[in-house]
Amino acid sequence: MTVKLGVNIDHIATLRQARGGNFPDPVEAAENCLALGAEYIVLHIRRDRRHMQETDLERLTKKFRKHIHLEMANTREMVELALRYKPASVCIVPEYPNELTTSGGLKMDLKTISALKKTTARLQKDGIDVSLFINPAPYDVRKAKSAGAKIVELCTKDYSEAKTEHIRKKFLEDISMSTILAKELGLRVHSGHGLNFENVSDIAAQNGMECLNIGFSIISRAVFVGLPQALLEMRKAVSFYAR
Q1: Which residue range is the domain that position 103 belongs to?
Q2: DSSP code, position 150
Q3: Cα separations (Å) of 179 from 36, 71, 128, 175, 213?
Q4: Cα–Cα distance measured from residue 112 to residue 130, given in angstroms and rounded to the nearest whole number
Q5: Whole-number Å distance between alpha carbons of 151 and 149
Q6: CA nearest 9: which of 61, 190, 191, 33?
Q7: CATH number of the CATH domain containing 151
Q8: Hey, which residues are catalytic here?
Q9: pLDDT (tens digit, 9 = 90+) per residue, 106-131?
Q10: pLDDT, tens digit, for every residue of 122-157?
Q11: Bond into 97 cis (ω within 30)
Q12: What is the pTM of this model?
C-alpha cells in the first residue's frame, strides 16, 4: 500500500479572496488534484473565513464528497457546518485568533477531551470519520483514542522547522513512536504541517503512515511549474514508499 496524499487547497482560495472574485476556483483545483493522483482534498474553514467559504464546502462535497477532508475548530458553528454538508472526514484542529497558520496540536487536557468526545460521537453517528490533530506524543495518542477518534493526524511542525539534523531526527523519532502506538491502538495515522519536497521522504517512510496532508508547498511550487506538475512531483515523492 502506498502512502496517500491529501492536498490542502486553502491557498487557492487565498488567491481568490485577494481580489474578491471567482478565480482561481477551489473546485477546479480539486478536480485537477484528484485526476492526478491525490486521494483527498483538504480544506480548513476558519472562523474568520480568510480563505475557504461555506459555499466552497457546499460545492466540493456536492461533487467530491468521498474525497473531502474538512479541517475545523471544535465549535458549535463548525460542527453544524460539517453535519449539514457531510464531508467524508473531519479533522478537529486548534484555532486561535490572529495566528498565521495552525500552531500545533490540540491541547489534550480534561476539558478538551470531554468536548472532543461529544463532537466525535455526534459526527461519527452521522457517518463522518473524525481525526484529531495532535502533537506526536504517547499521552496525546492515547487521549485521542479515548476521545473516540478513528484517525490521528500527527503534527509535523517541529520536525519541519528543526534547525539542525540532530533536532530533526529527535522529532522524527517522536513521530515514528507515535505512529507505532497509534497503530497498536487501532487508529489510522495521518501527518501534516510544514511538509515539503525536501523533508517529506522520512515521514512517508514511516511504517504505518497512511496519509500525508500537504498544501502550502504544493501550491507555492505550482506558481512556477503549474499545479499538475507540482502535484505530480509531490505524488512521486510520497507514493515512492510502499507499505
Answers
A1: 4-239
A2: S
A3: 27, 20, 22, 6, 15
A4: 15
A5: 6
A6: 33
A7: 3.20.20.70
A8: 44, 71, 193
A9: 999 999 999 999 999 999 999 999 99
A10: 999 999 999 999 999 999 999 999 999 999 999 999
A11: no
A12: 0.95
Q: To the nearest 10°, the Cα dihedral for 28, 212, 80, 12?
A: -30
Burial label for 112, CB within 10 Å (0-12, 13-18, 19+), is middle
In this structure, are residues 72 and 90 in contact, taking their beta carbons and an 8 Å threshold? yes
Nearest Cα residue to 214 out of 7, 45, 51:
7
What number of helices (H) and strands (E) belong to the chain? 11, 8
> Number of folded domains in the chain?
1
150 Cβ partners below 8 Å, 6+ apart?
A: 124, 129, 130, 131, 187, 188
| Cα 170 from Cα 172, distance rounded (Å) | 5
Q: Whose grid coordinates read 495518542?
A: 141
How buried is 238 (Cβ within 10 angstroms: 0-12 exposed, 13-18 middle, 19+ buried)? Answer: buried
Q: Provide the 3-class DSSP secondary structure of residue 159.
A: helix
pLDDT at 240: 59
| Residue 20 CB-half CA count within 13 A | 0
Residue pair 219/193 in contact (Cβ under 8 Å)? The answer is no
